[in-house]
Each structure stands twice: as C-alpha cells, then as structure tokens.
Amino acid sequence: MANAKGKLVVFFWISLGALAQSPAPSVTISGTVQDQTGGTLVGAIVSLHRPEDRQDQAAASDSTGSFRFAVAAARTYVLRIDQPGFKPFQQTVRVGSRSPASLRVVLTLASRREEVTVRGETNAVNTEAAENRDAVIVTQKTMQQLPVFDLDYLAMMSRFLSQGDIATGGVTLVVDGMEANGVGVSPSAIKEVKINQDPYSPEFSRPGRGQIQISTEGGTPQYHGTFNYLFRDSLLNARPTFAAVKPAEQRRMYEGAVTGPLQWWPKTYFLLSLQQDEEDLASVVFAQGLQGAIRENVPSPIRHWFGSARISHDYPGGSYYWLSYSYEDRSSKNQGLGGTVLPSAATNSQFLEHEITLNHKYVLSKKWLNEFRGYVGHYRSPTTSLSKDPKTVVLDAFTGGGAQADQKRTEWHFGMADTMSWSSGRHLVKYGFTIPDWSRRAMDDFTNSGGTYSFSTLQDYASNKPYSLLLQRGEGRVVFVEKTLGAFVQDQIQLTPSLTLAYGVRYYWQNNFNDRSRNVAPRASYAWAPGKSRKTVLRGGAGIFYDRTGPGPVWDLLRFDGQHLLRFLVDNPPFPDPLVSGSLPPAAPGVVRLDPLVKIPYQLQYSTGVEQQIGKSMTLAASYVGNVFVSSFRSRDINAPLAPLYLARPSPAFGQIREIESAGRGLSNALEITLRGNVKRFLGMAQYTFSKAMNNTGGITWFPANSNTLAGEWARADFDQRHRLHFMGAVNSGLWLNLGIALQVASGKPYSETTGQDANNDGLALDRPTGIARNSLEGPALAQLDLRWSKDFLLSPKRKDKGPIATMSLDAFNAFNHSNYISYVGTLGSPFFGKAVAANPNRRIQLSFRFRF
User: Fold this and answer.
1) Distance between CA 504 and CA 480 in Å, rounded?
2) What is the DSSP code string of 698-749?
3) 364-419 pLDDT, tens digit each
4) Of 236, 243, 306, 286, the residue nearest 8 (C-alpha)
5) What is the pLDDT of residues 465-485, one digit of tens each?
6) What is the dihedral of CA 360, 364, 365, 367, to 10 degrees?
7) What is the per-residue pLDDT across 531-576, written as a single tens digit (0 to 9) for each?
8) Residue 710 included in any domain
9) Which is nearest to 500 in space by CA: 106, 125, 91?
10) Please, are residues 718 and 748 in contact by the beta-carbon 8 Å criterion?
11) How large is the greatest C-alpha to C-alpha distance in the chain, in angstroms?
C-alpha cells in the first residue's frame, strides 16, 4: 500500500505540471452533444459566432461529446452543430456577466422528422420517452457540491431506489449502457448517475427504480484532472449511540483522475483513475451475557486500492472505441461483528479483481448506429473466521464462539451487449441482445464445520439446552457455469408533435433453474403534451419485469444435494456435543431442492402521472406507481414435522428439505411527487413518496413461521415504508456561501414478533405468538440531514472556472446528531425485546481538499 500511496503522490504532481495553458476570457459557453440513445457524439463540428460579424470559433466535440468556448461577457452568440448523418442544429445563446448553464444538445438522425432538443438546466418538460421528470439524474458538477460520504455516489443515489424493484441478486448496475459488476473507475471519473430514466425501456432488465445507471468520463483533447483528499477523525465525531466510550477512528482517502491526449497517436486519449482508502474504524458491540451487559469497541480496519486505465480513439463521423483495465484490492479485518455479535465471531476477508472492458460505437450510415460493449474479468474472495470454535447463538442476546464462516469464492466472468439503432421518418427503432453475465463460479465452503448451536434464551444457555445444532460435513467445493441472456426490440414513434409512443418487448433466460415458462416481457409507455404551450405532459406506461436469482441459490442447490456437502440440522442436541469433533450426528442430512413447478418470478408495473413546467427552470411531477408481484420466491421445509404433536419428520431419510418455490405474491401502490429545478443561485430536487406494500414472502431464503401453513404471512412487506422524503440541493450565493444539502426522512419499517422457541421442532426458531401476523411491529422513523460547505480558490483568476481550482470543504453527516436506530429485536425471550441493538452512525465530520484543472 505504500507503493500505491506513492503512485498517488506522483500522479498529483504530474497533474500540477500539466497546467501550461494560455489564459482565457472570464466567461465560457459549454455543453455536450448526444444522439437519441443518450450516447455521446464525438467529432461533431461545433461553431460559435456573433450575429453582427460572423467571425467563427470552431472546435470538434471530444470523446465525451463535450465542447467549450471562452467568450466575452454580455454578448449574444449563435451556436451551430454539424455532424454527418444528423440534422444540423442552431441556437442563439445570450451571455451575461456569468457563464451560462452547460447545454445538452440532442441531435436526431437526418431523416427523422422532429426537432432537435436542447437541455441545459432549464428542466423543460417534453415528450421524449427518456425525459420523464420523476427520474433522478445527478451530474458530476452537482455531485461535487453535495455532501457525499466517502465520495460514494452510488450509496447516496441508492436512497432513491425502490426496494421492491430490486432483483433477488441485488441492485442492477448499468455502466455506460451495459450491466456490470462494478463502476470500473474511481469517483472523479463518474460523469452522471441516473435512477428511473425511461423506466419501461425493454433495453434494461429491471424497472427504472430498481437499477442505477452510470456514465463515465472519456478521454479529452486537453489535459484535465481532479485530485481529492478526504480525512475524518473520531476527535471531530459524536459518540456512537450504543458505545460506552467514543471509539478511536480515522479515515484517509486519496482519489483522483487525469485525462488528456496521447501526443504520439492522433485522436487518441487516455483516462487514468486511482483510489486508495485507509480506514481505521471500530465496531460497537452491544450485547447481553450471563454476567451482564457487554459493551465493547473493536477495531475493524479496512484497506482498499483501486486503479484503472483507459485508452480511447475517435474516428471521423462520430465513431469511437475505448479499452480499459481495472484492478481492485480490498482487505478487511474484524468484520461481521457489532450489535449482539461478539469479537470472537468476527471474520477477515479479502477481495481481488481484474477486469478488461471494451466499448465501441460505430455510425454505419445516416440511419444506422451500432453500439457494442463487452467485458471479461476475474476475482477471488476468501473469508476466514478468527476463531475455529463452534458458534454459539443466543437469540438476540449475544453471538459468540467462532464465526464458522470460512469459505473462498473465485470467478471468471464475461458479459457483452450489442445494440442497433435505426431512425426513419417518425420512428426510432432499437434492438439488440445482451449477456449480462456468463460466469464460471467456484466456491470452497467450510462454513459450520465446527457447528452452530442456537439457544432460545440466556436461561437455556445457562442450562445447556440448545434448540438446534447446525453442522456440515463432506465436500464443500462447487463449480458451475451461470448463463444469463436477454434480447429486446423497441420502437419509439412520434405520432404527432405532441404525442410519443414507445413500445417493445424483452426476452430473458437464465440456466440452472428448470424454468419452462416463456419469459417474454412486453412494455409500453406514452407521453402526451396537450395544448399549444406544451408545458404540461401526461405520461404513463406498463411493463413486465422478470427476476434474476444471482449465484446464491444455485450454490445452495448444488452443494446441499445430499451428496456433496452434508448439512445436518439436529433438534435439541446435547451441549457440549462431541459430534462437532468430526463424527456424523445421529440425524439425516438435509437437502435443498427446486419445486418441480418453479418458474422465474416477475412483476407487472404500471404508472400514470402528470408533469408541469413551472416557470422557465422548474418542473413538478406527480406519479402513481402500482406493482403486482407474481410467483415470488420463498423457501419452505416440506419435510417439517406435522401438527399437532410435531414428533417426527414425514421422511426419516432426510432432515430439513428446503424447497425453493415461486408461489409467493405481493402488491404495492405508491404516489410520488418530484420537484426539481433551479431558482436564482439554488439548484436541487425533492421527492416525496407515499406507499404501501404487502406480500407473503421475505425472499428466496425466507421461511414461514410454520412451513405447513402460511397463516399470518400475508402482511406488510419487509421493505414497506409509508412515507419517504428525499431532498438534495446546492446554494451558490457568493464567495463564501457555497452550501450543499442532503436530507432523508422516512417512516419506520416493520419487523416480526417471535416467541424465540421451536415448538414445531423444525430447527428454526421462527414461531410467532398465536394470532400474531408477520411484521406486526414497526421500527422507528429515520431522519438525517447532511451538510457541505465549500470554498473555491482560483489559482489562475483570469481563467475562472476553467481552472486550476483548489477547493476546501467541510461536511457534516447527520449534522443534528439524531439517533437513527436499526436492528430492532422482536424475540420475546430476548433482554432487548422491543428495543434496538444498533444504530446508524451519529454525527461525523469530514474534511476534504480537491484540486482540479
């Protein structure tokens, strides 16, 4: 890591040496040029002249589609953009004493009969399918003004995701138009982050509110760079809610990106991004043992290094390609503890990944455009328990002994996507195929080789009376190939100047699940602007979205097949038990199976809403969104002992038979109100959601309280929050008042009340009191305000915002030091019943320095 730190220092000084550029006037006209797909147009000829003298400035858009002109203030200019195969664009731009907002110009193919649109920070409503105003879109410039913890833009934007729209395998990440495992660049090279843009597009597998779309920077013809240094120390932070004393913590982050031309290769550019994290953090233990309360702060250090390099080349006519390589190394110690988990049950882990990505965009003709993206990579991730002792779980009191979590995962993964766009008349047709993931995955599983004992209460622990022992024996190595495929076609048609219709279909398939259904997902949306002013847009749509399991369930099916890794769940075992020393217990092994009727779950989402232009630079959108969840995943023990005596399992040759079913269902309804725009020196957005979600499953690994009956399982969904308010914005009103604000307020999520006992002898302490439904209790509300103050120092005053610029910032996360409790306990036998055992961090102060040119 010392070498890595040295590389960052060298990178910083090289960046300083790249500043030999001539002074420029005090105002700039800038923007980006895009096609209808949202892709950047490289090499577009952008010219600028004053109407009275027609003396042109001209330049070609760079590999990010960007252009910039230095001009005199208080003048009027004519901007013209020409690109082969596209309709020319011309716009009058009036410049005052300050640089106008950056423009976003969307060109259309020459044969398409519709107007070219300009998008600056005017936030105008329009009928394009991808211009819905309830989308959350944050550019790099805006992100730099907001309080973003650890520059983690994805975590900040994930607040706007809908948990019900996230796939079983997790949040879908779309990077530069292709599903990916990671961003592939450090934060300074992220250009834009979007959520819910064009939510019914068949190009993507998940609904707009269940995925994050990211655009990354490309190379530029001029040298540009950014360097960030972040620092936090516990001396500046508030004491964590459950800590007896403030833990000693410190966080240091070095991050940056630099781009520019490769002088020996015309039209070829590079992008280098690096990040190093040194986190000396602590986990807070808040548990209860036989001797009383356990309060402890345990160091949990993390070291992280990431680097990526990209080369891009521009061709005449707007075609280009780029090739990148990235490497990531993360090591974590004393992880998995905190709350009721004691230090002995912690783990150490490491993550190493290499990835190569290719992106190619080719303009075939005036009507045809092709985009290809592909990646190949490898990662390795071992996890080691600190202690080899058997694990001891006293429900919601403490977890001690060893973690019993030893395993190693390795993977070779490959993905690609190819999209064709064709424009003719009123139509814009897109079609293509995608391989989101084609992987060779391997796991070496040594978990629970020493066994896990579970106790209902501290009294049972004192009496040596566990209700179950989980023990695994046999071959824990599993290797399989995961394949996922998709294909789509869509037509966006401009029926009239005020009415746009988009419709299409997507096909989805994955192996390893005996899914005999035809996973064809039709989708459609419309946008209509009634009246001559076109300041009101009525928008709606509907579509089907299929789930994706991820590798976890497949690993379970292959290793717990009754032959490879034997899994024993022993009811009421003796304690301590010599069985954990290596011999097999007097019990039948459990297995994991697929329901013969299983199929891939899907959800039907539909919405309707209205968008209203308010003045010149603000919009208000109100949308109703409904969801019907069909054939949702859940697990059930089909060999559970039968009522009323629960004396024995129906099939004595097996223990627990976990059957993965797709028999769950769910409903949700939501009203979303989104206000976005800018007023004088303020730019921001606010989104309020009022919703209700009901279902009868908690996911693919979830078991009902009694596997032989689903009584009481239809209830509030785990992710149900009736009220959510998110606000983020920035105020720039002078030399010293540059303030970024991020606010999130939400009502509580539900949790279940359980007895902590295993009265039905199925090895799971999920029993609820008689007549009590699932998720009948509710946790506390959440409220957090984050603030950022920053000050720019112009190192070359004549160049203004063109740099170089040094920025000092002070961030306060959870500025009011509000205790946001999590991990509420619903186990009746726990000493913490009805209380929390953990909380989100209290106030943290972050100091940062940014240098950019």
Assistant:
1) 33
2) --TT---SBTTB-TT--EE-TT--SEEEEEEEEEE-SSS-EEEEEEEEEPPP
3) 888 899 999 999 999 999 999 999 999 999 999 999 999 999 999 999 999 999 99
4) 306
5) 999 999 999 888 999 999 889
6) -70
7) 888 889 999 999 999 998 888 899 999 999 998 999 999 888 888 7
8) yes
9) 125
10) no
11) 96
Long-range contacts of range 363-368, CB-CB < 8 Å, 24 or more positions apart? 363/84, 363/85, 363/317, 363/318, 363/319, 365/85, 366/84, 366/85, 366/109, 366/110, 366/111, 367/85, 367/109, 367/111, 367/422, 367/423, 367/424, 368/420, 368/421, 368/422
- Residue 758: give its domain's CATH number: 2.40.170.20
Cα distance between residue 574 and residue 577, in whole Å: 6
- Check the CA dihedral 563-569-573-579 and report its sign: positive
Strand partners, 690: 671, 723
Question: What Å distances lie between residue 736 and 733, 739, 807, CA to CA?
Answer: 8, 9, 12
Please state the length of the chain.
Answer: 853
Q: How far is it, in rounded angstroms, from Cα 672 to Cα 719?
A: 17
Q: How many CB atoms lie within 10 A of CB 99?
A: 19
Q: How big is the CA angle at 136 (ends 685 and 741), to the nearest 5 degrees?
A: 40
For 745, how many CA atoms within 13 A lie in the half-sphere containing its CB? 9
- For residue 50, pLDDT over 80 is answered with no
Q: Which amino acid is at 616?
A: K
Query: 117 in a domain, yes or no?
Result: no
Amino acid of residue 664: G
Under 8 Å between Cβ of 704 and 766 = yes
CA distances in angstroms from 416 to 43, 359, 376, 486, listed in the order given: 26, 10, 9, 10
Dig out the tokens for 556 from the structure. Answer: 């379970």
Comparing C-alpha atoms, which of 91, 99, 55 is closest to residue 74?
A: 99
Q: What's 383-442 look like in SS3?
A: EEECCCCCEEEECCCEEEECCCCCEEEEEEEEEEEEEEEEEEECEEEEEEEEEEEEEEEE
Q: Is position 244 within any domain?
A: yes
pTM assigned to the model: 0.85
Cis peptide upstream of residue 804 (ω within 30 degrees of 0)? yes
Question: Any idea what the Cα angle at residue 770 is, between residues 765 and 773, rounded to 5°?
Answer: 80
- Classify residue 3: in a domain, yes or no: no
DSSP state of 642: P
In the chain, the number of structural domains is 1
Specify the DSSP class assigned to residue 102: P
Q: Is residue 32 exposed (0-12), middle (13-18) or buried (19+ Cβ within 10 Å)?
A: buried
Strands (E), 262-367: 268-280, 282-289, 292-299, 302-314, 320-335, 347-363
* Residue 633: CA count within 13 A, CB half-sphere: 20
- What would the two tokens of residue 367 be? 């009507």
- Note whether 42 and 63 are within 8 A (CB): yes
CB 542 within 8 A of CB 523: yes
Give the three-state DSSP class for 316: helix
CA separation for the pair 235, 751 (Å, rounded): 35
Do 786 and 149 meet the contact criterion of CB atoms below 8 Å apart?
yes
Rounded to whole angstroms, the Cα distance separating 281 from 302 reads 8
Tokens 């054939």 correspond to 631
Question: Is the CA virtual torsion 452, 458, 460, 461 positive or negative?
Answer: positive
Q: What is the residue range of 451's domain?
A: 224-852
Task: Quote the CA–CA distance of 205 and 791 in Å, as a whole number.
Answer: 42
